[in-house]
Structures are given as C-alpha cells and as structure tokens.
Amino acid sequence: MKYCYIYTGYMPLGRHYRRAMTRTQPVQATAEADRPAASMGTSYARRDLYEERQTVEAGVGAFATAAIPSGTRIFCEESLVMMTEDATQIELYRAVASLEEGSRAAYWSLAASAKPGKDVSWIDALRQCCERDGESADSFNALVEACERAWSIFETNRFTCKASTSPTSLTTLGVFPAAARLNHSCAPNVFHRYNPLIQRLTVHALRDIAPGEELLTSYIDICHPTPARRSLLRHWGFKCNCTACTNPDVESDARRKKLGELFLRITNRERKRARSAGGWGPKDYEASIKLAMRTIRLLQKEGMAETDTLGVICLIGAQLASLAGGKWEEQAGEWARTAVAVDRKCVGEDSMEYLRAAEVLEATRPRPRL
Ligand SMILES: C[S@@+](CC[C@H](N)C(=O)[O-])C[C@H]1O[C@@H](n2cnc3c(N)ncnc32)[C@H](O)[C@@H]1O
Question: Which of 206, 236, 266 is the last residue of a domain?
C-alpha cells in the first residue's frame, strides 16, 4: 500500500483512488506553462516592510512595520496550487498532496473558513475507489475530511489568476501562501493582481502606508453598494467592518452602484465597437467618451481614484479619444498619462496593463509635422 503524507499524518492512497485522480484534468494552469523562464523574475514577500500578526477578529493579518511608499511592490509570489474553477475536491487534494514538503506544510497552515461545497458527488466517486481498494471506513472518512479541508483552505485563500472571459472559458484560481494572509477591506490600501507575464501574484501599495497599519486588499469588486458587497463576502464567512461597511452612507452606496452600472455600459459599448469593424461614427465615440468622463468624475468623488479601476477607464477613454481625434486629442494624452501612472502604481511596469497603457500613451503623442 502506498502512503501519501498529508496534514493529519500518513494516509492510505490506494490503487484505484490514485488512478481515479490521475484521470482528471491537469491541475497546474497550462496557459503560462510554456513562457520562457527568463521573463518570470524572482518570488518574494517584503518581510522587511511587514509582519504577520494575530488580529482580534480576522485571524492572522499583515501589518506594515515600516513606511511603505505608494506603488511599492510588497509581494511577488508564485502559486502553491493553481486550479480551474471546475476542479473537484479530489483533484485539489491530489495537487496539494503532490507538493514538496515545505509547500505542503505552508498550504495546510493556511486559514480554512469557507463552507464545504454543496456538490457532494465527489464523495461517492471516492467511496467507490476506496471500496475497490479495500480501504477501511476510517481511511475513507479521513480522506474525505482531508479533501474537505483542502477545499476550504483553497476557497478561503484563492485569488483569481485568469478571469473567465466568456461563458465557455473557465476562471483559474491560485493560492499564494504569503499574500494569503492579507485580510479584506472595501477601502483597501493594497492592490493584488496575477501577472501572467511573470507568473506571479503582485501586491502593490495603493497609497503611502504608515508603520502599524494593516495591509488590506479587496477580495471583491468594490463598485457595489454595501448590501451587494456583504452578499459577495459571505463566501469568506465574515462580515466586513471596514469604514465603507460600518458607516454605509446612502450617497456613497448610490455612487458605487452607479459606478458598477457605468462600468458595465462602457465595456458593453466597447464590445459593440469591436464588433462594428470600423463602422463607428463621431457620435458613437462622443457618447462613449462622455460615459468615461462621468465614470472618472464619480470614481474621484467616491475616493476611488487610487484604485486600478481608474486606470482601466482612463485607458478605454484614451483609446476612444485618440480614435475620435480632433478636439479630443488633448484629452486622449491626459487619460493615457493617468492610465500609465495608475498601472505603474497598481501592477508595475512588467504588467500587461502597464505595457498596454504605455503603448496607448505613445500613440497619443503629437507627431512632428514633416
Ligand atoms: C485570505 S484569508 C486572510 C488571512 C486570514 N485572516 C488568516 O488568518 O490566515 C481570508 C479569511 O480571513 C478572514 N478575514 C479576512 N478579512 C476579514 C475581515 N475584514 N474581517 C473579518 N475576517 C476577515 C476571514 O475568515 C476570511 O475567510
């Protein structure tokens, strides 16, 4: 009988069970697998800038131990495990069990507060494998428990690495052991994003952070009013006590709701423009540019000008204004400069977002007359 080390000790991992698990899809994300290693850089967590500490209500958190200037990259981390959203508990367990010892211990040490999934069909599949292998009921129960714990840790700590872009594509999620200690706020002071070019999760300071402040990221899209944010955060099993949630102000909620709507309208119009194959006229451009303007003003009013959302809208606005030309040319340059500055701060110069913004900025520069 083969044994595989997991957090509870040694556990039987029989012939059928192993075969059942190897039949499943590969667990490591493959999209970036063939990128050259040279572009990936190193992994680090700036322990010289922060420390992990127990909090009163939110488990372990990360706290600044030095002044952290806005834009500082605090984490640049490889994932321990990366799975597509359709992966089963068994597949996840297999991925964790196959980690080298240090990484496996790091995984099992993470918080587990997410509730078990509703779909329990994987338990039947596991039972059949265990029965075929002649495993005892105790072994089977321990294995179910291990799979459930692996799942809860994953659901508690995963960050989105590749968002689904269509109904047929799947979201990829990863667990990053140091960044996993970041607690949530709907008024965050750091920003996280997976960078596929370097295959790392990066976390940047959104503003200057003073020593003693907790580093807080947002697990969700914050362009939602308080009740909607609360509902999204139920997944992590806590009620957010950040400034935006404890004093929900009607005007702020209305602004965040409006921001969500405007964002959707702009992105839908952009999709339409992409399908129009150059058939857009000046009025279409003007309507989209005005939507971008309204969104940017609202972001500033809501105190969200520090977030990456501003960079996204400014980039769209800059592209539209540049294409519209004429009276919009100056605006195109201004928005492109803002997008470059926001992306440098939030995701860094090695990110796709920054490179795209820099390209748009270059295109908006006035051409010398011949
Ligand atoms: C990614 S982990 C963050 C690190 C975690 N606190 C730990 O001890 O390892 C997510 C979990 O932390 C807790 N958490 C995060 N943000 C919180 C907050 N604002 N208030 C209360 N609990 C929070 C919740 O239990 C959540 O499921």
Answer: 236
Q: Which atom of ligand 1 is nearest to the CA of 60?
A: 8
Cα–Cα distance measured from residue 126 to residue 130, given in angstroms and rounded to the nearest whole number: 6
Rounded CA gap, 97 and 149, in Å? 12
Closest CA to 48 of 69, 64, 70, 60: 64
- Kindly state if the Cβ of 180 falls inside 6 Å of ligand 1: yes
pTM for this model (two decimals) = 0.86
CB 190 within 8 A of CB 205: yes
Residues 133 and 271 in one domain: no
CA of 354 to the centre of ligand 1 (A): 30
Q: Tell me: the pLDDT tens digits for 319-353? A: 999 999 899 999 999 999 999 999 999 999 999 99
In a domain, 144, yes or no: yes
181 alpha carbon – ligand 1 mean position (Å):
7
Q: Is the CB of 229 under 6 A from ligand 1?
A: no
Number of compact structural domains in the chain: 2
The reply to whether ligand 1 has any atom less than 6 angstroms from the CB of 56 is: no
